[in-house]
Amino acid sequence: MSDIAERIRGLLATRLKLVKTAEELSDEAPLFGPGGLGLDSIDALELVLGLEKEFGVVIEDRATAVQVLASIRTIAEFVESRGKG
Amino acid sequence: MGRVVLVTGGGRGIGRSIALALADPGDFVGINYRRDEEAASGVLAEVRGRGADGMLLQADVTDLGQVRSMVKALVSHRDRIDVLINNAGGTRDGLLAMMDSADWDAVLDVNLKGVFHCCKVVSRQMITQRSGVIVNVSSLSGITGLPGQTNYAAAKGGVNAFTRSLAQEVARYGIRVNAVAPGLVEGETTARMPAAQREHLLSIVPMGRMATAEEVAAVVRFLASEAASYIIGQVIQVTGGV
Question: Which end of chain A, N or C, is less packed with Cβ atoms under 10 Å?
Fold first, then answer.
């Protein structure tokens, strides 16, 4: 799981240009919404497409995206649950 | 290497002309059709005659699963898609007070939901590429309305607004989205019209004639080309002045 979490941090750094922030983020820190990093729906789309390219996981709808992209931990769990990573 | 192009409803009429107009040597043209495989095969042969290559893609654009399979099959050839032409459409004309819900739904589905499905799936690939062009084939009916076409006009009016919105959404990824809105075009639909209706419609066209499918395709080709590199979110009317 920690290897997947590091790869997700790498995506946040490269695709969302959050280099320093990504390094410092805990697995539990909220990415979106109140208390989050001020990311918007365009960032969410970038992350969805980045996850598809990096891990081969597909997020097709908004409801799933909101659930999965809550934190690095929830994304990692989703990737593992799909048997990827 | 040339471009990868997808033309929905590419088997006849305006779709056929667009497929041929976009078939330069080295290009790869996916010709989508719903039922008429023979007609689509004929277009593919013409595409190959121009030095391009391509494939037939059977799919109903109103079915998201079929659209996903279609796009996956096309992208697998050169790992990209450069141009999407949403041409698949159709009419079921009738006065609103007597219109069946089925006729309303069918026309909205093929003309508007089909555009949603194809753009939703293809735009993800284009965003990954950071490049692409989408041209939606709309209609003058979606701008001026036409008696007997409340469903078609609603769908095409929707396509026009959709085009403007999507253009603003994806411009940052290097994707350009525009539409063409033809008026009367020579072909099967206008040939089926009652003569009196056709004459009445022609009487309000300043140029006094219908467009050819090739004239509409030429505008689509322009919008898909680098010559239109700073044009997005536009609905170009090809109407002879109406």
Answer: N
Considering only CB atoms, which residues of chain A are within 8 Å of chain B?
Answer: 42, 45, 49, 52-53
Record: contact B127-A49, CB cut-off 8 A? yes
ipTM: 0.70
Q: Which domain holds residue A10?
A: 2-81
CA distance A40 to A79: 22
In chain A, the N- to C-terminal Cα span, in Å, equals 9
Per DSSP, B185 falls in state B
B211/B46 Cα distance (integer angstroms): 22
Instruction: Report the gap between the CA of B75 and the closest CA in chain A (Å).
Output: 15
**A60 min Cα distance to partner chain B (Å):** 10
Residue found by looking up tokens 């253009």 in the block: B167
pTM of the model: 0.90
Contact between A49 and B128 using a beta-carbon 8 Å cutoff: yes
Instruction: Indicate which CATH number applies to the domain containing B78.
Output: 3.40.50.720
CB contact under 8 Å between A53 and B128, yes or no, is yes
* pLDDT tens digits for range A51-83: 998 999 999 889 999 999 999 999 999 999 998
Cα nearest neighbour of A53 on chain B: B128
Q: Which domain holds residue B65?
A: 4-238
- pLDDT tens-digit series, residues B10-40: 999 999 999 999 999 999 999 999 999 999 9
Number of domains in chain B: 1
Catalytic residue among B33, B152, B173, B230: B152
**Residue type for position B91:** T
